[in-house]
Amino acid sequence: MRIVNVPLGTRSYEIKIGPGLLSQAGALCTRLKSGTRCAIISDRNVAPRFANTVRRSLKQAGFDSVLITVPAGETAKSLKVVEHCYDTLAKHRLERKSFIVALGGGVVGDLAGFVAATYLRGVAFVQVPTTLLAQVDSSVGGKVGVNLKAGKNLVGAFHQPRLVLGDLDTLRTLPAREFRAGLAEVIKYGIIYDDRLFARLERDLPLLLRRDPKTLMEVIARCCEIKADVVGQDETESGLRAILNFGHTIGHAIENISGYGKYLHGEAIAIGQVAAARISTAVLGLPAPEAGRVQAIFASAGLPTEIRLTPAQRRKLLAAMRLDKKVSRGEVTFVLAKRIGEVVWGRKVPASILNEALNSLAP
Ligand SMILES: NC(=O)c1ccc[n+]([C@@H]2O[C@H](COP(=O)([O-])OP(=O)(O)OC[C@H]3O[C@@H](n4cnc5c(N)ncnc54)[C@H](O)[C@@H]3O)[C@@H](O)[C@H]2O)c1
Ligand SMILES: [Zn+2]
After folding, report:
1. pLDDT at 326 over 90
2. Is 185 an active-site residue?
3. Residues in Cβ contact with 71 at an 8 Å cutoff, skipping those fewer than 6 apart
């Protein structure tokens, strides 16, 4: 097992990564010094597979849990589902000392974390991420929230978990497409922070795609270390944390104009990162062969690196980029790479260079 510490003063916590963690959940939760009542929030795909193991483990450790199962997929990140969770928590008399276990992918983590941040003005929560994306990204860092009709993640909070348990066994049942989408965030960490990780990914991609447990454990732990390091320096995204958005300016816009669902988030940001690398070559002099390595690794991971845009779609894409909530004072800015392993954020990009990069994405 690997342990990564997230250094946030009194709110510091540990991320444990390894096999067999679901059945240790109860014992590990006893260290939280919480009450005996808790709730597990999970979704319809994950709960039938894993909730019993977690409940049994909690019971053995003396906890009394209620299971709340929400629909699978992005639609569960809604205020309606939040209200359903509050009602169930109240009905089972969860109190200030109770805690919530988020068992599932990023959707469940964001939803359950938001419920935990707000129920009784905040109760403790534990993340048990079951997708690759959730294990390397959404379960770490404390951003929680739900969607509005007007857009994704428009209501939320910063609420750090007390413990994160990334059980590698859960990844075995993850659909291949979801697994590859998670790899897009894994590769992102190499580009923004760690050239050695990037080189390792180039080498070990076949092992990763086969979900080799040892490779997975080491790579996931490194990604968590990087996210913990970034979040530890800038918890509330006033600066450095922005680097985690490499490839996301264009990626979010692609998700947005294609109608949510056509591209998984990881697929959209794979294309976005390829574009960002090419823009980096034009603006910061990232050597073209390095941008080539970026494109090649996403292609080898089975992720899309091209997109066909009609003139109308391109206009919509540019408009969507300007509407992104990360935009400040109407200025679209980018995270750009100086080299693989080092990026800068908040860079404006001339329209001509942006257009050229979008042209280059055509198949
Ligand atoms: N809070 C953050 O910092 C942060 C960061 C990145 C993404 N997110 C959010 O994360 C969400 C996406 O997360 P995701 O990609 O994990 O999607 P998800 O939670 O929808 O999971 C993807 C699918 O896989 C299923 N699934 C989950 N675990 C499984 C398993 N072990 N076996 C089989 N099926 C399984 C789910 O039921 C779902 O159908 C988005 O809402 C995004 O906004 C949040
Ligand atoms: Zn992302």
Report:
1. no
2. yes
3. 43, 44, 81
Nearest CA residue ID for atom 41, ligand 1: 107
Confirm or reject: Cβ of 133 under 6 Å from ligand 1.
yes
Q: Rounded CA gap, 261 and 184, in Å?
A: 17
Angle, alpha carbons 204-105-12 (nearest 5°): 85
Classify burial at 109, counting beta carbons within 10 Å of its beta carbon; exposed 0-12, middle 13-18, buried 19 or more.
Answer: buried
Give mean pLDDT, residues 177-191.
Answer: 98
Instruction: Pull the structure tokens for residue 82.
Output: 């939040």
Which neighbouring-strand residues pair with 334?
347
Q: Which residue has the tokens 């444990």?
A: 16
Q: Are 282 and 272 in contact (CB under 8 A)?
A: no
Quote the pLDDT of residue 328.
61
Q: CB within 8 A of 190, min separation 6: which ones?
A: 197, 198, 199, 200, 201, 340, 341
Confidence of residue 110 (pLDDT cuts 50, 70, 90): very high
The verdict on whether 241 is a catalytic residue reads: yes
